[in-house]
Amino acid sequence: MFAIFIVSLKTHTSPPPPCRTRYDFYMPTFDVVSEVDHQEVKNAVDQAQREIGTRFDFKNTDSSIEQKDLVITLRTVSEDRLNALKIVLEERLVKRGVSLRGLEYGKIEEASHNSVRLVVTIKVGISSDKAREINRLIKEKGPKGVSSQTQGDTIRVTSKKRDDLQEVMSLLKGQDLEIPVQFNNFRD
After folding, report:
1. Is the pTM above the cut of 0.85?
2. Listed residue (79, 72, 74) closest to 102, CA to CA
3. 175 and 113 in one domain?
């Protein structure tokens, strides 16, 4: 009879209160990243290649645009055609929503068969120097109580108030950071 009483007590007790950890108190955060949609870049290059195939000013110039991952190579007969080819590529990239801030142009090189070549690299990620600059900017010009820390090639911005985070977003959009920035993982 005593054993039955103990069993009945165990079944009727309430569960223990949950343990509180430092992770239970979430603060609003977001991540600052510099990314490029690879599919949109590919689509823009394909559209530019089709356009130079049909345009009259590119006839018999042997112009081409080639892409390997995030490196785009422009080839044509002369420097003025190369500048026109660059403009066509930039127009297509902008139309597809890819920021031109992420483009890094190499030097114009002489290639075989009396042609010129230009290598365009698309920068992805936030370098450590640029991350330090963004962190310093947030610390100096951002609202009080906002903290930021670098996590690889992203920057995590944390605050107690959601409005402060939105103010930091508008601050970063208004600055000329020389890289395209996007805001991901906004959490309340």
Report:
1. no
2. 72
3. no
